[in-house]
Every structure is written in C-alpha cells, then in structure tokens.
Amino acid sequence: MQIILASTSAFRRALLERLGLPFQSVAPEVDESRLAQESPEALAERLSLAKALAVAARHPDALVIGSDQVAALDDLILGKPGGYPQAMAQLAACSGREVVFHTGLCVITPADRQRHVDRTRVTFRTLSTEEIERYLKAEQPYQSAGSFKVEGLGISLFETVKSEDPTALIGLPLIALCRFLRQSGVAIP
To answer: What is the pTM of this model?
Structure first.
C-alpha cells in the first residue's frame, strides 16, 4: 500500500524517514484557523484529521498520515512567530513557565481511521533577555511553533520535557504511528 505523509514539513519528513519506509509527501491544503472556543488539543486533533482526509480524498487507495501540532501557554496558542520580534515576545512569555504541545496524529486507510493526540509538557528555564537574543541569533527558529527547535540548540532553553514520545515534540509521534502502521499491516522492524 502506498504511504503518503499529508505534510510538506521537513521535520515530519525527516521523522518518517527514520522508519525506512517508502513514502511521498503531499501538501494537504487545509485551513488551519482555530474555531471559536476550540481547545488546543481539539484543534490539533481536528487539523491532523482534516489534513489526512484532504489527501485521502485525492489518493483513496493509500495509507495517509496526517499530523498537526499546537503549542499552548495556558489558553494562548503559540504559533510560528515568523520573525525576531514575535519570537522574542513568545520566549519571554514562556520564560519560567510550562508550555503544552498537543501533537495530533491521524492515519487513514481505505478500511480504517486511527487517531491519537500526544501531550508533551515543556518547562522553560527562567530566561534572560540576553539568553533569548543569543538563542534567536544562533538558531533563527521563526518557522517553529513556540520559537525554538528542540532538535537543535532549543533544548538548552528547557528545565524539563515530559512526554510519552520524544518525537512528538518535533512534530510526528512515531511510537503511536508505528502502532497504527502495524495495525494497518505495514511491516516495521
């Protein structure tokens, strides 16, 4: 069965490549706007399903993987900052606080649909303005939710990371994905 990742994210592609399975990436073209009163967890779950469904509609015989991640500081959703000023503000707001990353996963096959949401709790160290500035100049994480790259220097910003699956924080929970793939008949070592 053809495997399709409903994403153009380089981070998700790199994670899926770890499994050694042939796959292709297809842009899902989904509106990612938050619905009124939608919780961060519900948003991540809905968007991962919507992305998988959008691609499955164009490839009905494939196994389609959809994923989305929503970072939340209390009820405030931390999106991709897009630039230095927004990243400065995000990291200053996160300093000394806990941010919860909700990573939704949906696997759709012609016969089945499986969903999962991983919650990763990240506690930031108390960060000085100088530390934030040095980090942003070094890594420029302007296209990363929460303004950091955990797979890079961003790990230095944390006091703790609590998760059932460390890959979820990067954007694709591989432990749950492997379970879903095996249940769908895909052989994984």
So the answer is: 0.92
The whole-angstrom separation of Cα 61 and Cα 42 is 27
Mean pLDDT, range 62-85, rounded to an integer: 94
Q: Which of 61, 68, 75, 112 is catalytic?
A: 68
Torsion (CA) 53, 59, 61, 66 in degrees, nearest 10: -40
Residues 6+ apart with CB under 8 A from 85: none
In this structure, the strands spanning 158-162 and 76-78 are: unpaired
Question: Which secondary-structure segment (H or E) carries 15?
Answer: helix 10-17
Is the C-alpha dihedral spanning 45, 56, 173, 114 positive or negative? positive
Confidence category of residue 140, pLDDT binned at 50, 70, 90: very high
User: In 98-120, which positions are buried (b, 16+ CB within 10 angstroms) versus exposed (e)?
Assistant: ebbbbbbbbbbbeeeebbbbbbb
Annotated catalytic residue 68: yes
Q: What's the distance, Cα to Cα, between the start and end of the chain in Å?
A: 17
